[in-house]
Structure to design on (212 residues):
């Protein structure tokens, strides 16, 4: 897939009355000294009322004889006007658990069918700017299963995603390579890669990198 035609054409202010996915709010709060202050914040408008998170990120591991590999994807993101390197992710639908959303989004965006291994604590993407949050769901993918042989994605009309995978041992180096090529690195991918490098540096990996 070529992303060469993807680019921002114009930028203009957006009123809350026109916004479909997010809104700006002004918060009034007291600081630790009791002083009243204000804060500008952004909020998603899509979080289901019965849910405590906006979405999920998916750490999907391919189990291969040569070692575990992480499923990644390339996607043009207009807010940064770049192709980004991301993990599969998506918003939670009404009535879904984080785990159900992760399995659904993984199938829709990549075609892979996985099994949930673990779910992270709630995480906030950028708490100094917005209240958007998620849970990371760790998923293993058995490559021997028939459903993981002929992959069929179920993308929305406005979704353009290129799926690929990287050996966990090489993730940090690959992030650097993609940045040098002009891509933006999603913070979840970069942080995961940094964690692996820290584990190597401080000798926390007494055995090969586990399968999620």
């Amino acid at each position: 897939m070529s992303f060469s035609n993807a680019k921002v054409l114009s930028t203009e202010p957006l009123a809350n009355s026109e916004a479909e996915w997010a809104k700006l709010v002004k918060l009034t709060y007291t600081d630790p000294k009791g002083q009243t202050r204000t804060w500008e914040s952004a909020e998603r408008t899509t979080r289901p009322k019965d849910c405590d998170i906006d979405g999920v990120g998916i750490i999907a591991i391919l189990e291969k004889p040569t070692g575990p590999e992480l499923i990644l994807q390339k996607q043009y993101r207009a807010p940064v006007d770049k192709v980004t390197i991301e993990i599969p992710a998506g918003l939670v639908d009404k009535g879904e658990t984080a785990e159900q959303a992760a399995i659904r989004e993984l199938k829709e965006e990549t075609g892979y069918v996985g099994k949930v291994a673990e779910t992270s604590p709630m995480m906030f993407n950028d708490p100094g700017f917005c209240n958007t949050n998620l849970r990371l769901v760790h998923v293993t993918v058995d490559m021997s299963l028939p459903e993981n042989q002929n992959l069929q994605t179920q993308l929305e009309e406005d979704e353009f995603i290129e799926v690929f995978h990287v050996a966990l041992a090489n993730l940090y180096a690959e992030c650097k390579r993609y940045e040098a090529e002009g891509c933006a690195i999603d913070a979840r991918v970069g942080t995961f890669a940094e964690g692996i490098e820290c584990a190597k540096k401080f000798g926390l990996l007494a055995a090969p990198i586990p399968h999620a």
Summary: The chain is about 20% helix and 35% strand. The radius of gyration is 19 Å. Residues 76 and 83 are 4 Å apart (CA to CA).
